[in-house]
């Protein structure tokens, strides 16, 4: 590419120099010849005036004086009343430049050697050629500088892209002072950040899976060993079998949570949804479980709200909060929906003892559970809400009150969440 840029810029420079230099040379040659002819004609006119004046004053005309006054000239005087006069040395016929001045009494002819004019022409042409070569030299220098300024950043961008392809997802932060190349570098940096984020999520998913699946699998293995050991005792087999089923259900729940989070991290895209529809569906789904626990769910606040989120993501986040309240809370669960200037807010609160002080600041951390849970529920719920551009916060410890902050539908035009690879 550098060679192509150099050849293209040099070609443009040569064409420009030729288009300007050749006409300039022609004009200079013509001007020099015209100037020489004008000077000869002026000399002939002055001589004719001087000769006529001398004749009128009856003075003699000295050829030697004419030769002294007009060196390098060949002068011929043909005036009435005076014999023809010649002064100077006549140049060769093929190199002779001659101009005349005429009057009623005669004429004067002045000649010079054209070699003198050609010498001046050559000097001017040499100067023009030198200027042309200097211009070409400057063009070559500019072409080299420009090609380096363009090709080196492109080579650097190619190395960055190759590094991204090999899995090294570090943004380079390189900028080159060329707007188009800087935009490409910015896109590559954003891609590197997204790739790094995806790789981090993949590693995080693998870590979560390995950590969270180990405990249920270990418990299930122990139950199966007990069943094998007590094969002749139906009561024990039944008891251990029921415990194994519980372990399997817990294992299934952990797997579902992990896979749902992984799918959302790759494909989530917030859109305008009906908040009431999601909340009504969750109340209908969880009401039987709360009724069996002799508790209830109450939905209050503003109705008809719309927010930017995903139906599945909001459903899962609300379900996680309701499940936590069912397991760890008490009394009536109140879901309150409000609309503020900045957000659509969904608060989930119960009347239980709340969250212990030692867990208040760590409730959203991974593997932190108050009573034997997986430690993933609130963590995944918060990441799901964040993926939709919202927030999940604990706003009160006692009684436990969680709030989901979602964006208004009007915010979609100026802020859009993009998840997953570009």
From TrEMBL:
<dbReference type="InterPro" id="IPR036097">
    <property type="entry name" value="HisK_dim/P_sf"/>
</dbReference>
<protein>
    <recommendedName>
        <fullName>Signal transduction histidine-protein kinase/phosphatase MprB</fullName>
        <ecNumber>2.7.13.3</ecNumber>
    </recommendedName>
</protein>
<dbReference type="Pfam" id="PF00512">
    <property type="entry name" value="HisKA"/>
</dbReference>
<keyword id="KW-0904">Protein phosphatase</keyword>
<keyword id="KW-1133">Transmembrane helix</keyword>
<dbReference type="InterPro" id="IPR003661">
    <property type="entry name" value="HisK_dim/P_dom"/>
</dbReference>
<dbReference type="InterPro" id="IPR005467">
    <property type="entry name" value="His_kinase_dom"/>
</dbReference>
<keyword id="KW-0464">Manganese</keyword>
<keyword id="KW-0067">ATP-binding</keyword>
<dbReference type="InterPro" id="IPR004358">
    <property type="entry name" value="Sig_transdc_His_kin-like_C"/>
</dbReference>
<dbReference type="InterPro" id="IPR050980">
    <property type="entry name" value="2C_sensor_his_kinase"/>
</dbReference>
<feature type="transmembrane region" description="Helical">
    <location>
        <begin position="125"/>
        <end position="145"/>
    </location>
</feature>
<keyword id="KW-0418">Kinase</keyword>
<keyword id="KW-0460">Magnesium</keyword>
<keyword id="KW-0902">Two-component regulatory system</keyword>
<dbReference type="InterPro" id="IPR003594">
    <property type="entry name" value="HATPase_dom"/>
</dbReference>
<keyword id="KW-1003">Cell membrane</keyword>
<keyword id="KW-0346">Stress response</keyword>
<keyword id="KW-0812">Transmembrane</keyword>
<dbReference type="InterPro" id="IPR003660">
    <property type="entry name" value="HAMP_dom"/>
</dbReference>
<keyword id="KW-0808">Transferase</keyword>
<dbReference type="GO" id="GO:0005524">
    <property type="term" value="F:ATP binding"/>
</dbReference>
<feature type="domain" description="HAMP">
    <location>
        <begin position="148"/>
        <end position="200"/>
    </location>
</feature>
<keyword id="KW-0597">Phosphoprotein</keyword>
<keyword id="KW-0378">Hydrolase</keyword>
<dbReference type="InterPro" id="IPR036890">
    <property type="entry name" value="HATPase_C_sf"/>
</dbReference>
<keyword id="KW-0472">Membrane</keyword>
<dbReference type="InterPro" id="IPR040868">
    <property type="entry name" value="DraK_HK_N"/>
</dbReference>
<dbReference type="Pfam" id="PF02518">
    <property type="entry name" value="HATPase_c"/>
</dbReference>
<keyword id="KW-0547">Nucleotide-binding</keyword>
<keyword id="KW-0843">Virulence</keyword>
<dbReference type="Pfam" id="PF18092">
    <property type="entry name" value="DraK_HK_N"/>
</dbReference>
<feature type="domain" description="Histidine kinase">
    <location>
        <begin position="208"/>
        <end position="410"/>
    </location>
</feature>
């Amino acid at each position: 590419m550098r060679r192509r840029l150099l050849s293209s810029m040099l070609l443009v420079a040569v064409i420009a120099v030729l288009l300007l230099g050749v006409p300039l040379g022609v004009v200079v040659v013509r001007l020099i010849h015209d100037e020489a002819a004008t000077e000869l004609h002026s000399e002939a006119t002055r001589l004719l005036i001087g000769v006529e004046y001398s004749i009128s004053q009856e003075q003699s005309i000295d050829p030697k004086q004419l030769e002294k006054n007009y060196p390098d000239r060949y002068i011929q005087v043909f005036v009435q009343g005076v014999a023809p006069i010649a002064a100077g040395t006549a140049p060769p016929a093929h190199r002779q430049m001659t101009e005349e001045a005429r009057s009623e009494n005669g004429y004067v002819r002045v000649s010079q050697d054209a070699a003198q004019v050609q010498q001046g022409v050559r000097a001017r042409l040499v100067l023009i050629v030198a200027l042309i070569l200097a211009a070409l030299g400057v063009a070559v220098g500019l072409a080299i500088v420009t090609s380096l300024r363009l090709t080196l950043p492109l080579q650097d961008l190619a190395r960055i892209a190759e590094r991204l392809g090999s899995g090294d997802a570090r943004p380079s932060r390189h900028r080159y002072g060329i707007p188009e190349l800087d935009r490409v570098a910015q896109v590559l940096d954003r891609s590197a950040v997204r790739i790094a984020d995806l790789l981090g999520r993949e590693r995080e998913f693998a870590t979560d899976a390995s950590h969270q699946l180990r405990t249920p699998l270990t418990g299930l293995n122990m139950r199966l060993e007990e069943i094998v050991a007590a094969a002749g005792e139906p009561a024990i087999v039944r008891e251990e079998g029921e415990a194994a089923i519980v372990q399997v259900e817990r294992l299934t729940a952990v797997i579902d949570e992990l896979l749902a989070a992984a799918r959302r991290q790759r494909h989530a895209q917030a859109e305008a949804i009906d908040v009431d529809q999601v909340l009504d569906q969750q109340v209908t789904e969880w009401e039987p479980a709360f009724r069996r626990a002799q508790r209830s769910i109450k939905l209050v606040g503003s109705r008809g709200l719309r927010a930017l989120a995903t139906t599945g993501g909001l459903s899962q986040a609300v379900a996680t909060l309701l499940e936590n309240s069912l397991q760890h809370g008490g009394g009536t669960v109140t879901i309150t929906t409000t609309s503020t200037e900045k957000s659509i807010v969904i608060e989930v609160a119960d009347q239980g003892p709340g969250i212990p002080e030692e867990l208040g600041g760590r409730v959203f951390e991974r593997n932190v559970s108050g009573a034997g849970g997986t430690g993933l529920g609130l963590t995944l719920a918060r990441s799901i809400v964040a993926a939709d551009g919202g927030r999940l916060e604990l706003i009160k410890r006692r009684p436990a009150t969680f709030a989901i902050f979602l964006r208004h539908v009007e915010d979609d035009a100026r802020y859009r969440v993009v998840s997953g690879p570009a």
